[in-house]
Design brief:
Elements: E1 16-28, E2 40-41, E3 44-48, E4 52-56, E5 61-65, H1 69-79, E6 83-99, E7 106-108, E8 111-114, H2 119-157, H3 163-187, H4 195-198, H5 203-212, H6 215-269
Parallel strand pairs: 6-8
Antiparallel strand pairs: 1-5, 1-6, 2-3, 3-4, 4-5, 7-8
Helix pairs in contact: 2-3, 2-5, 2-6, 3-6
Length: 271
Amino acid sequence: MILCRLEAFSPEDRQQIRVRSLCLAENIDTRSLRKSRNLASSPLTLEAGEKGCAVVFRFGAVVFFDVTAIEETAFLRQLEPLLSRSIDPPRTEEVTLKHTKASEERIEGGTIHMPRITLQHLQIVADVLAKSVVLEDYEIKISTRIEELRPVTTSLRDGKVNNRVDRLLLHHIGDTLLDHQEMIGRVEVTDKPDILWDAPYLERFYGRLFDEYEVAERHESLERKLDLISRTAQTTLDVIQTRRSLRVEWYIVGLILFEIFLTLWEKFFGK
């Protein structure tokens, strides 16, 4: 169980907050964490370190606010038993929240300037950054799969097809379907966070962050790549199966001709 401080976490009076987002695993079992003292339940927000907090997402991401490297390591060590299919090394992204006297938020490079910093603001930042690092993980995995699929199409072009190609294609089709299901069902990349129902005034801020990190565009790009992998694998598999069917048909034709030959042989030379 994650241990929390006794004093309340309050970001309002801070001039600058360091933010670090990590994609640790494919899944985090947050049920046991909800039994411990938390700052908010949706998304699950826990106190971490001496003056920081951590937002934990069930789809495998954790976002730290004002947590030192030593405190982060201690927090993650307690989190390890709750991880499913850990990612090593984890995907990471860092930004800085900075208090500004301007009336509106603005984003410059790796710094988010904000006239007001509340826990709800942090949760919005956490939602976008968590989705960003998860998308990065998918981008890396899918790019790797595209490269792995290249030799398959090359072997098909060269006419060098074997049973290993079939197994590899089925493996790619299965992985592609699984990735697609996870992106839509588990991560819900394009869905807005529940907190916006309670704090609709943060809708504009969320929209800016969502656009800044190109979440929708990256998600659409991944969808296209997944579709490309699926179509390439399926098309290649169809071609292989068609060639095998044609080969079987030629075998059948050969057997029929051989049988006709034997019949004629027996008829004219059998006696």
